[in-house]
What we know:
Elements lengths: L10 H34 L6 H5 L1 H21 L3 H34 L6 H16 L7
Helix pairs in contact: 1-3, 3-4
Keywords: Membrane, Transmembrane, Transmembrane helix
Family: Belongs to the MS4A family.
Membrane topology: Multi-pass membrane protein
Amino acid sequence: MPRRRLWIREETRLLGAVQIMTGLNIHGVGLIWTYLFLSQPSAFGKSYLPLSAATGYPYWSSACFIFSGIFAIIVERRRSTFLLSYTIIVNILSACIAVLGLLLLSLEFIIYTLSTRTPIWPEVKMVKFFQNICSYSPSSSCF
């Protein structure tokens, strides 16, 4: 009986590297949000809690993206059916988490736009910064 071979393209290592970099970028954005949240009350007397930071999205999603990238790299080196199926499941989970992140960010922009209070300058700068990241990010089209 012929043995089945796993045909895996060489791009999986590149996909894994992109997922790891996406996870690190999201984690860095979460650290920026945390710093701004903690420094705003002392500087301006007001605080603004981003919805994505309140849900902890930057921290648990970055871990999921990094694990997904690691498994994509491992499955190219050690080709087994178990690793391949686990990698596919983790990649689907990462895609769902990316969609959830886009929904959270869209909801954040809507809530911010509908607020009637006058914004303080870090809010305006951060919203414009994240709008630019979302519109020019090549990693948002990877999923």
